[in-house]
Amino acid sequence: MALLRLLLALLIVFSSPCKVTALEGDSAEVGLNYSSKSSETSTSTNVTTATITTLPIVIWKWHHVETPYLVALWILTCWLCKLVVELNHSLTSVIPESGLLIMLGFILGGIVWGADKAQTFKLVPVNFFYYLLPQIVLDASYCMPNKLFFSNLGAILVHAVIGTCWNAGTVGVALWACYEGGAMGTLNIGALQFLLFGALMSAVDPVAVIAVFEEVHVNEVLYILVFGESLLNDGVTVVLYNVFDAFVSLGGPKINAEEIIKGIVSFFVVAFGGSLIGVVFAVLISMLTRVTKNVQVIEAGFIIVLGYLSYLTAEMLSLSAILSITFCGVCCQKYINANMDEKSVTTLRYSLKVLANGSETMIFVFLGLSAIDKNIWVWNTGFILLTILFIVVFRFMGVFFLNWILNQSRLIPIDITDQIVMSYGGLRGAVAYGLAATLDEKKIPEKNLMLGTTLIVVYFTVVLQGITMKPFVQWLKVKKATQADLTLNGKINNRTFEHILTAMEDICGRMGDNWWTRHWKHFEEKYVCWLLMTSDARKHNDQIFGAFHKLNLEDATSYVTEGESKGSLAFIRNDDSASVDFKKKLALEYADIIPDIMADMSEYDFGIDNVPVMKNPIPSVSLGIHEQDSKTMPNDLNAHHLLEQHLYKSRRYNRPTYSRSHYKASENPDEMQEIFQRTMRSRLESFKSAKMGVNPAKKLSKHPKKDSTHKPNGKPADPNRTHPYGDEDFEFSADSASSSDIAGHFSRRSTNAPRAGVDNPAFIPEMDTSAPMRNPPWQTETGNNTAVAPSQRAQGRLPWTPTNLRHLAPLRMSTRSTDSFAMADASVDEEAPEEKPGTHHTRL
Amino acid sequence: MGSRASSLLREEDIEEIKKETGFSHSQITRLYSRFHSLDKGENGALSREDFQRIPELAINPLGDRIINAFFPEGEDQVNFRGFMRTLAHFRPVEDNEKNKDLTSGEPLNSRTNKLLFAFRLYDLDRDDKISRDELLQVLRMMVGVNISDEQLGSIADRTIQEADTNGDMCISFNEFTKVLEKVDVEQKMSIRFLH
């Protein structure tokens, strides 16, 4: 009930802007969800025309921000709905999230209705197809398990193309036959309109069913069949819809054999042309990511924008946009993942997820919201019930028939339970609604009946079938996916198996599935990779090596976790042989995988303990790392540890804006004192050396000011206030003079400065204020570890880069990354006194 | 061609092969015609050279190992029955066969036999263990030149460690089976023979 109250409170916030917009009567086109109905009630009471008599201090400018404001508010509301839905986990495990969102949409719609007495907001097809759908499809296709998809492409295409046409045709014809038989009373619908309706009803929605599948871990073939089908099917449906739409506008009498053939040809041209556009864009994206190394910050953005452009381009050429963006995502994922930095891949993955989930949420909420409109509800029991009956029945028939054909040539036939689940997974979703809403009322007089029926079908399938799906899958005992852990043995042997199979097929003299796979691989390695991948990425493109790298990363992660749970990574210092921690790690790893290995653990330990005396020079990977660096590793770690403990805390932490650790600085007043004294000493020295300098007067005038701020309390509690502004300006100009991007130079210069004997005193104050925490320890304590120390500190400051863990595997640590971190660190430190926390990551 | 080749094959041979390997009659005659066309010496048996003449096998990184798998130890000829026996490893496991296992011994296309076939590819010295060197040899064949020897060595080490449960730094067949426990070997080691 608290839930409801929250929603009500939210909606009160909304209803006032709604009323304002209703009064001002804006055109509906601009708004995301703003319907044209409200323009009737306009009473042109405009504020802007009022003459100004005096200078206004603050004006109410609702009018200026209205559209984006409403859009943002609605996005917020929808996402809050998702939040509310996800609050109760036991509820979402029974009713799928999509169903709950639709229900919340009903409530929201009801409240809007209550406030406005009209439907002010609804899902407009244009917005749906241009702003909400593309990212969902892009995300789905980008995250598609590539290999699985292509190895089942035949079956997926059969289901998506033939299955969809079958559904569209049969539902349309059957409904028309029933209408002719008099089951629906008198309606103004012809045979073609029924076919059009059948076409739009055949769009299967991936969202709801995939959520269920992922939860129960159905086997991967079933997963990819349903997922791939529902994705491609959307595209095919739109194409089919357009063809039938053209037939409808052409009108019954004009349709002859020629037109029908044209329709069929256009179907294939549109579908394959769209896919081709997608592939072309995939090539473009892959090639582009070869050269985006220098703009890593926006690298991920390129993919999103180009993916979107592939959608729009296909739309512009009246080809299938959905198929275009689907193939774009599927084809480019491998190459861009190899080309881009790991950070960018993570960024892309997450931003796509945010976009896709965001718009998915909006779509479902608005599907519910759109129902609250009395105009669209034209009830016709016969029509509605028969539609539901037919889509279910014909879906089952189609799936079974097509699978029967497919099974004739499949190595592993699709079994009966999988077929039932496939048929039952035919949920209708937003695409069907979007298409129904696009119907032209002039051509189809019964548009509202169709729209209403579509909504009912969507609710029926998403809510009812969605709820029953999970128990159904469990009851049928659908084969679950074997939870395959990543093992090198698995990877290597998979590859071995592939080689064996192709060899056997060659020996038997038939071109099997493996023949195609192998020839494609050959071609890909020879030409495609050369064209689309950077040479660096090509080198690391070996699957076995990839698995090896991934495993090492995992090791590193768990190694850190383990280390941290014991207080510090420095614990390794206490164990003389590195093999000990590897053993622990292995024990951990295997403990939660195979319990019966636990029984062998004593044996296992024995084996590991023996490792150092084994004849192999590098007994294991992790060990290999330790051993290879056994000379440097302990030293390094000691150094790290030493640095960690003895580096002065930056005053950056001191600032109240960084609330997380701002009180930490006061922990150590001695440190402050020490720094202060050291600064003073070095200033004194530089003062002496600069006595003959250019501008001693300026310096003299500056120092007392600074000292006075530092002296009284011994530590600067708030640099914001205590920092002398003259210095800051000065620093800034010096920074920009030395061209801000070479921040590395800057720090180097400042480290060199005291030793070299500065002849320009202008640099002294800034060097003293911004760098004292770093300079002295480097010079006095650790000597040559300058490159490592900042990288670790930078790591602490960049919490969004989990892949930095590479640093723990020194084997893979490149000089490049160290450099960039050093630079990052330097630039961050430098900006600290300038109080621009928001800008520093753009420099990375 | 097919009819001429199959005429060389006696019915009772077919029956025996059928019983041993589980192939259907038509599959056997089809494969016999393939066997016949590979057999350039026309002596009813294939030599290593006959296999090596298949162009695709030359570009298969494991080609020679796989050819070797056809030949029983110490022999360099394989007759049609031996040929079929090896191919039978790759017959898909059919549903009705799963239950038959208990009654009529282990069929050639069982999971264990499929795995054993793969295992033998590694195990050159036939001591029923994959040593580090043996693994390394196969790995070297399968990966490109981009991976250095050290990296490959550590991959091999790690691979052995993953599988090795008794600490002898070798992979025995039991360990091999165990580590591939979750891999769908039945599917991944099967090809479709035309009926």
UniProtKB/TrEMBL annotation, chain A:
The keyword ATP-binding does not apply. It is found in: Apical cell membrane; Early endosome membrane; Recycling endosome membrane. It comes from the Eukaryota. It is a multi-pass membrane protein. Residues 777-794 have a biased composition (Polar residues). One of its GO terms (molecular function) is potassium:proton antiporter activity. The keyword Thylakoid does not apply. Pfam families: Na_H_Exchanger (PF00999). GO terms for biological process: regulation of intracellular pH; sodium ion import across plasma membrane. Residues 686-844 are annotated as: Disordered. It catalyses: Na(+)(in) + H(+)(out) = Na(+)(out) + H(+)(in). Keywords: Antiport, Cell membrane, Endosome, Ion transport, Membrane, Phosphoprotein, Signal, Sodium, Sodium transport, Transmembrane, Transmembrane helix, Transport. One of its GO terms (cellular component) is brush border membrane. Its main location: membrane. Residues 1-22 form the signal peptide. Residues 92-475 form the Cation/H+ exchanger transmembrane domain. The chain crosses the membrane at residues 99-116, 128-144, 156-177, 189-213, 222-244, 264-285, 297-314, 350-372, 384-406, 449-467. Plasma membrane Na(+)/H(+) antiporter. Exchanges intracellular H(+) ions for extracellular Na(+) in 1:1 stoichiometry, playing a key role in salt and fluid absorption and pH homeostasis. Major apical Na(+)/H(+) exchanger in kidney and intestine playing an important role in renal and intestine Na(+) absorption and blood pressure regulation. Belongs to the monovalent cation:proton antiporter 1 (CPA1) transporter (TC 2.A.36) family. This is Sodium/hydrogen exchanger. It comes from Culter alburnus (Topmouth culter).
Automatic annotation (TrEMBL), chain B:
One of its GO terms (biological process) is protein transport. Residues 26-61, 110-145, 151-186 form the EF-hand domain. Keywords: Calcium, Cell membrane, Cytoplasm, Lipoprotein, Membrane, Metal-binding, Myristate, Nucleus, Phosphoprotein, Protein transport, Repeat, Transport. PROSITE patterns: EF_HAND_1 (PS00018), EF_HAND_2 (PS50222). It comes from the Eukaryota. PANTHER family: EG:114D9.1 PROTEIN-RELATED. This is EF-hand domain-containing protein. The lineage of its organism: Eukaryota, Metazoa, Chordata, Craniata, Vertebrata.
